[in-house]
Amino acid sequence: MTSREKVKNAVNHVEGKVPLDFGSTCVTGIHVSVIEQLRQYYGLEKKPPKVIEVIQMIGYIEDDLKDALGVDTVDFWAPFAAYGYTNENWKEWVTPWGQTVLVGEGFTVTEDENNIYIYACGDTNYPPAGVMPRGGFFFDHTTRQEEIDDDNMNFMDNTEEFGQVDDGLLDFFRKKAKELENSTRYVGGMIGGTPLGDAALVPGPMLRRPKGIRDLEEWYISMLTRPDYIHKVFEYQTNIAISNHEKIHEIIGDAFDMLFVCGADYGTQSSLLYSPQTYRDLYLPYHKKINDWIHKNTGWKTFKHCCGSIRPLLPMFIEAGFDIINPVQWSADNMDRKTLKEEFGKDLVFWGGGVNTQTTLPFKTPEDVRIEVLETCEIFSRGGGYVFNPIHNIVAKTPVGNVIAMINALHEFNGDKR
Hints:
This protein has a 7-stranded parallel sheet with strand order 3-10-11-12-13-14-15. Helix 4 packs across helix 6 and helix 7 (276-297) runs parallel beside helix 8 (314-320). The chain contains 12 helices and 15 strands. It is an alpha/beta fold. 35% of the residues lie in helices and 13% in strands. Strand 4 and strand 5 form a beta hairpin. The chain has helices spanning 3-11, 32-41, 63-69, 167-180, 216-225, 227-252, 276-297, 314-320, 337-344, 360-363, 366-380, 400-414, and strands at residues 51-53, 58-59, 73-77, 91-94, 100-103, 109-111, 115-118, 130-133, 140-141, 186-190, 258-262, 301-305, 324-326, 349-351, 386-387. It has one domain (3-41, 61-79, 146-414): TIM Barrel, CATH 3.20.20.210.
């Protein structure tokens, strides 16, 4: 059985060995610093890792490392970085923690004694779009909110980043599909356009001068005070996305198996960011329209990332047509593993949740990691519908010994000889 077949079985709720994902999405990845340590541990060629997702400083996982870890997935991503440049023509950059990494040619930063600043589209004629403290390991967006005039608001200001796919991008997708047509790994697609109200995108990090509602606090307030405006943004974005999906599917068919639809978080550690009714009124109709088109016209499975204590929303995610939920943050309140599996495991694929990345993986012992992985796999794998990944990305300063313990525990559960 190939890796691709193993993941397809799991996604179709066929019980069997638990597949492993790293790198198919921007929320199932590994920080560049940990990738370097893993390559060293496995005795692989020493080379600087590519920063494939710059906000979180997520590194590209090369095939040799995937083989060493036993990864069952592969990425099919659009080539754009969050700050508006393209992941191509790689160049070296030395991070604040002293690691040499590769970044896209358009990656442009300035520095002072406290911070590193990154610029949208590499254009330093405009204020920086993100900042990394000297002691940090990832970028935070800056707030570039222009004054809002409620009497003259135009919802199109919040749609500048959502446009029709052009011939150049379609050609990129055509070549990528050809490259992966015989892949034995399960292909995860990230082509953009569908993450409605995602906190990583609302500030417009890819835009030189973002207009509209770009301050996150103002955006959340607007869900109550300007719902008509939000509806217009989502309706426009949804229609553009479906139009683009039609063109892309015509070019590549079912070259990827799963599509990352939305990464917006609606939960905190203890509760929801906003009410279930707000999700039902503002988000669900558009998610359902996107997912319905995908299921009617393609073979893609639909992937929803949503951190936090989100149990009240899970029935609505099912209603909206999502096939997969990630990262399954059972460490949050009201997110008991057994209860989640019993109530939602027949309708949703749990993709993640393998080990707690806030406490266990970074701070406890390898044996603690092993025990937690085995417990989680035992709960979530029953009846299929489970793909292993931690609760979100593996962050910087996570002990490599604990990462290895996690990988070994999964293979132990599967009965793999390694």
